[in-house]
Amino acid sequence: MSSFRVSQAWQASYADPITVREGDVLTLTGRTDLWEGHLWLWARNPTGQEGWIPDRLVAQDGETARAAFDYSAQELACEAGAIVSGTWQLNGWIWCRRADGDEGWVPEKHLAPC
After folding, report:
1. Which of 93, 112, 111 is nearest to 13 (CA)?
2. What is the pLDDT of residues 91-106, one digit of tens each?
3. Positive or negative CA dihedral for 13, 89, 57, 19?
4. Angle at CA 91, nearest 5°, toward 41 and 13?
5. Please, are residues 80 and 102 in contact by the beta-carbon 8 Å criterion?
6. Residue-range domains of the chain with CATH
7. Is the pLDDT of residue 61 over 90?
8. Which residues are CB-neighbours of 52 under 8 A, at least 6 positions away?
9. Where residue 1 falls among pLDDT bands split at 50, 70, 90?
10. What are the backbone dihedrals phi and psi of residue 68, each rounded to the nearest 5 degrees, phi first?
């Protein structure tokens, strides 16, 4: 685990972020976004929840797209100057935990190593 100082405040973008479990069948809409040099795909999970997922999440099984690993698009709201612990980097984001135990993604460009 690494410690980071939040260099710029961040607010979550979506109230109901998409979550998937490894092996879930994904419906890809064809909508894409190139963010900070990383490809993101708009997808629907088996319960109908939609959202952006990293391209590395998708494993093709013939014509079927499946989740290659568990994933949640939960973002972590944090104030500038806060210290967070980061555990996983993916497509320009780092999975972080605040001191109060809340977790979620923060854009890597909003964090500076401590």
Report:
1. 93
2. 999 999 999 999 999 9
3. negative
4. 65
5. no
6. 2-13+74-113 (2.30.30.40), 19-72 (no CATH)
7. no
8. 18, 33, 40, 41, 42, 43, 73
9. confident
10. -80, -20
